[in-house]
Recover the amino acids of this structure.
């Protein structure tokens, strides 16, 4: 029988508009046109307000860039007139982000969770033959540039939660940075 | 003998006896000055008592008093011999003293009060014999115990003491107290043991001092070696592993170990991680079953091992902070056997926590591997000493690393801020028909805002504002590049949108770093107020119209500098009339947030300009700065804030 203990700490995308992660109090705000070419620039504008003490800044940049990319591409279908709205706040212990697009919302969210659950089951059963079918998540709308893996990574990275609103066009996320328990110096 | 005259004193043995006792007393007095812990004080008291006794007996030569004082004398010596051994002999000591007291009491009753007159005098004698026997047995049984100075002294002097007391007692019995032989010969000689004890005490003290000096000399040598090794590393390396590696080697060398290892407590997690490993250090804990018992595999495992706090004998030390000294590992239940191979054989083991004040930062352990080759107490002492001092050096090193990293960040921030400060104009030009004003307040660590005013012709002025994305030195470099290109090409007769095209082409795709910037640029005719405005994704220019008392935001949709090389920027023709105000500003102004998280906003900015329309641009800039500051209150400024204001006076 497969080991199901991982289910207790199963990571999945949740939908909860009342999540405290959607509380925008005190957060900075920027909005951008859905211009795919400018994603790197937008990311930089947001990340530049992160404190110098955050050491894994490149990983943070990468993850923020992925979320904005999702909003621009899958949410707003790269329609320049549609806006991506970003609320963000950083301190040396946390990164908190809300990204909202003007698209129809993440319809396949449940499907994605199913897919991810199966993928984790197969991983835990070490069934490498079937794993080949679960390497990446693809839909009819996916193009060759979509690795289909960004969300797996996002779920791992945003350890404080990765939550959609009810319309599923906004996602709030929280990352906590490890804090020193035993300072040596 | 009853002393009546001075000459009798001189002729009696009393004087020489007192001189004898005074000599011994002087020895103990010297000892008591050097050594406040020992028994010198008790010996001085004994000598004082003996002097008093001799004086008393010279005046009152009653043999009944003599015997009574002998009980006291012997009891005193009993105490001096047995008390240093503490609890185990406390019962015997008390018993002996009680016996002496009872014998003395019985003697008083018998000799002075006529109690049981038929009892013969020899009844009391066995008590003295028992006293001497007790002293002899105490000395003989504890001969090897030299753990403190008082016991050491007993071990060295019990024989002369016994001989002296025995001789004293025997001759007292044979010759009688008043006999010339006893007074002149036996009594003074019997006190010689006190002098011997005094000399022995002094010698013991000197030996200890010498041993301590030798110990500290060796310790200082060890510490010197440790400091030398670790210090040599500091010169060439800033790596934690190198520093701990030399500390480990120093500890192995100074304890005569075959190998050693150092673990550090992880800064973020409750685990210890191997940081140094050298020589032969067989695992003191059970290896994983699956690990092949090959020396290279085990060594590589040991070099990268990590454990939770409390797990394995090393994790235990890191958790509890308690030393482990296991001279004979095979006789110690705390160690698991990992196999019969030679390289897995652990013979002797020591581990100590590395502590900074009361904080445990790691564990050091050393091992000997040859059967029968054991660490001794001195090795353990040395190991503890080195661990203490080594930790001090290492923790200073960590503090330095952290400070160095922080100052590296600070220096970067400082350099970027300095570049920014340098390239922003110190003074803005003023004209009869056009006045300018600006403020720029950088946020710590950002240094992305830029503004400039370039006079391109007699009647033409180019004003530019920019915001480089990113921060630090990198952003400052992009800013310098943009400024250089602008200063080169604004003097041409190209229109202002083409200037942006050229800046964009100059920046895009050439350098391997992020190179995005927004730019807002105006080309204004100083005399007529005619104005061309071009924009690379910058905040829209605000224009206050005096005629209508309204503020308009002129927007041109575009992408920032650096996104695409072929970008064609657009321009708009505008005109400033008398009293009109144009303002270029950066994100930081309109996106400044207050404690409630609300943004200052473009509307507030426009209203602030309109409210201060009658002031000079310099004053307007100042007012806006004050207003934004007041709005933010105690909230943190997260981005540079810059504003450049133009006002027409036709």
């Amino acid at each position: 029988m497969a080991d199901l203990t991982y289910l207790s700490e199963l990571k999945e995308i949740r939908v909860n508009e009342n999540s405290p992660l959607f509380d925008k109090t005190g957060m900075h705000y920027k909005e951008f046109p859905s211009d795919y070419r400018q994603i790197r620039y937008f990311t930089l504008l947001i990340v530049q307000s992160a404190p110098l003490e955050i050491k894994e800044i490149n990983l943070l940049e990468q993850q923020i860039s992925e979320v904005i990319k999702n909003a621009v591409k899958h949410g707003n279908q790269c329609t320049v007139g549609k806006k991506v709205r970003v609320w963000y706040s950083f301190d040396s212990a946390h990164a908190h982000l809300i990204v909202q697009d003007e698209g129809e919302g993440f319809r396949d969210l449940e499907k994605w969770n199913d897919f991810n659950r199966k993928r984790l089951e197969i991983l835990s059963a070490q069934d490498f033959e079937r794993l080949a079918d679960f390497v990446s998540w693809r839909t009819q709308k996916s193009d060759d540039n979509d690795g289909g893996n960004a969300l797996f990574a996002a779920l791992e990275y945003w350890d404080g939660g990765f939550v959609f609103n009810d319309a599923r066009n906004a996602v709030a996320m929280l990352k906590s940075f490890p804090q020193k328990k035993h300072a040596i110096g | 003998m009853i002393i009546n005259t001075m000459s009798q004193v001189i002729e009696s043995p009393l004087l020489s006896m007192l001189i004898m006792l005074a000599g011994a007393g002087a020895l103990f007095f010297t000892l008591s000055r050097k050594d406040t812990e020992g028994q010198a004080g008790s010996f001085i008291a004994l000598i004082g008592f003996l002097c008093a006794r001799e004086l008393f007996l010279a005046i009152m030569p009653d043999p009944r008093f003599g015997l009574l004082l002998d009980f006291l004398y012997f009891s005193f010596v009993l105490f001096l011999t047995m008390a240093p051994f503490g609890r185990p002999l406390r019962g015997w000591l008390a018993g002996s003293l009680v016996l002496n007291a009872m014998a003395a009491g019985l003697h008083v009753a018998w000799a002075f009060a006529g109690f049981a007159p038929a009892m013969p005098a020899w009844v009391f004698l066995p008590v003295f014999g028992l006293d001497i026997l007790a002293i002899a047995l105490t000395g003989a049984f504890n001969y090897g115990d030299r753990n403190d100075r008082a016991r050491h002294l007993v071990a060295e002097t019990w024989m002369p003491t016994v001989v002296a007391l025995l001789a004293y007692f025997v001759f007292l019995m044979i010759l009688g107290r008043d006999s010339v032989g006893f007074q002149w010969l036996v009594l003074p000689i019997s006190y010689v043991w006190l002098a011997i004890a005094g000399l022995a005490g002094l010698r013991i003290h000197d030996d200890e001092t010498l041993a301590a000096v030798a110990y500290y000399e060796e310790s200082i040598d060890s510490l010197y070696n440790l400091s030398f090794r670790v210090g040599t590393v500091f010169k060439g390396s800033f790596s934690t592993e190198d520093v701990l590696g030399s500390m480990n080697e120093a500890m192995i060398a100074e304890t005569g170990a075959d190998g050693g290892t150092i673990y550090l407590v992880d800064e973020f997690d409750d685990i210890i991680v191997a940081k140094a490993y050298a020589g032969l250090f067989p695992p003191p804990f059970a290896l994983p079953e699956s690990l092949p018992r090959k020396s290279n595999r085990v060594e590589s495992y040991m070099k990268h091992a990590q454990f939770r706090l409390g797990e394995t004998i090393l994790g235990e030390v890191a958790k509890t902070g308690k030393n482990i000294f296991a001279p004979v590992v095979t006789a110690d239940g705390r160690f698991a056997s990992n196999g019969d191979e030679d390289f897995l054989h652990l013979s002797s083991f020591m581990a100590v926590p590395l502590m900074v004040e009361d904080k445990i930062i790691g564990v050091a352990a050393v091992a000997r591997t040859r059967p029968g080759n054991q660490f001794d107490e001195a090795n353990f002492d040395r190991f503890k000493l080195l661990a203490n001092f080594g930790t001090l050096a290492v923790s200073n090193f960590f503090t330095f690393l952290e400070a160095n990293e922080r100052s590296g960040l600070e220096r970067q921030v400082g350099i970027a801020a300095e570049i920014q400060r340098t390239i922003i104009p110190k003074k803005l030009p003023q004209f009869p028909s056009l006045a300018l004003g600006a403020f720029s307040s950088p946020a710590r660590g950002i240094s992305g805002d830029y503004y400039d005013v370039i006079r391109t012709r007699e009647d033409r002025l180019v004003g530019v504002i920019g915001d480089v994305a990113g921060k630090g030195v990198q952003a400052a470099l992009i800013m310098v590049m943009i400024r250089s290109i602008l200063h080169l090409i604004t003097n041409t007769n190209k229109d202002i949108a083409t200037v942006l095209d050229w800046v964009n082409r100059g920046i895009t795709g050439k350098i391997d770093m992020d190179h995005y910037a927004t730019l807002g640029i105006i080309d204004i005719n100083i005399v007529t107020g005619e104005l061309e405005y071009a924009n690379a994704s910058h905040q829209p220019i605000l224009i206050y119209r005096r005629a209508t008392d309204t503020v308009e935001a002129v927007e041109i949709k575009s992408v920032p500098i650096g996104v695409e090389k072929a970008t064609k920027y657009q321009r708009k023709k505008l005109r400033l009339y008398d009293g009109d105000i144009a303002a270029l500003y950066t994100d930081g102004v309109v996106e400044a947030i207050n404690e409630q998280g609300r943004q200052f906003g473009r509307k507030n900015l426009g209203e602030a300009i309109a409210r201060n329309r009658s002031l000079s641009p310099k004053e307007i800039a100042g007012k806006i700065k004050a207003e934004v500051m007041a709005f933010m209150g105690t909230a943190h400024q997260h981005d540079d804030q810059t504003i450049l204001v133009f006002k027409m006076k036709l």
